């Protein structure tokens, strides 16, 4: 399974407590899986499954905190690498 292509964030899409992620799907008719984890508090974990979209706005982030963001492709229940 191929990873999503051209995953990016525009500077103007970064808010104080939100971020808009955008991507180009690697294949037609696939689902995108997004995982967001706080570096300082690994128990803070958000997961999203997105279908038929090339972007998503993630809200409720804590200002000043660093997050690790992983994006993967899902096809027939199989997940690519993040």
Description:
With 82 residues, the protein is mainly β. Helix content is 0%, strand content 49%. It contains no helices and seven strands. It has strands spanning 5-8, 19-24, 31-38, 45-51, 55-58, 67-75, 78-79. The strands form two sheets. It has a four-stranded antiparallel β-sheet, with no helix packed on it. A three-stranded antiparallel β-sheet has the order 1-2-5, with no helix packed on it. A hairpin with a 6-residue loop joins strand 3 and strand 4 (45-51). The chain is globular, with a radius of gyration of 13 Å. The relative contact order is 0.32. The model has no long low-confidence stretch (mean pLDDT 89).
**Rg of Cα set:** 13 Å
Shape: globular
Strand content: over 45%
Query: How would you classify the helix and strand content by structural class?
Result: mainly beta
Low-confidence stretches: none
Amount of helix: under 10%
Number of helical elements: 0
Mean pLDDT: 89
Question: In terms of topology, how is this protein built?
Answer:
Blueprint: E1 5-8, E2 19-24, E3 31-38, E4 45-51, E5 55-58, E6 67-75, E7 78-79
Antiparallel strand pairs: 1-2, 2-5, 3-4, 3-6, 6-7
List keywords for this structure.
82 residues; mainly beta; three-stranded antiparallel sheet
């Amino acid at each position: 399974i191929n990873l999503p292509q051209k995953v990016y964030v525009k500077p103007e899409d970064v808010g104080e407590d939100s971020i808009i992620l955008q991507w180009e799907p690697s294949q037609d008719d696939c689902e995108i899986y997004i995982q967001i984890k706080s570096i300082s508090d690994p128990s803070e974990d958000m997961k999203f499954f997105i279908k038929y979209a090339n972007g998503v706005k993630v809200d409720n982030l804590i200002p000043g905190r660093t997050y690790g963001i992983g994006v993967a492709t899902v096809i027939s229940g199989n997940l690519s690498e993040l």
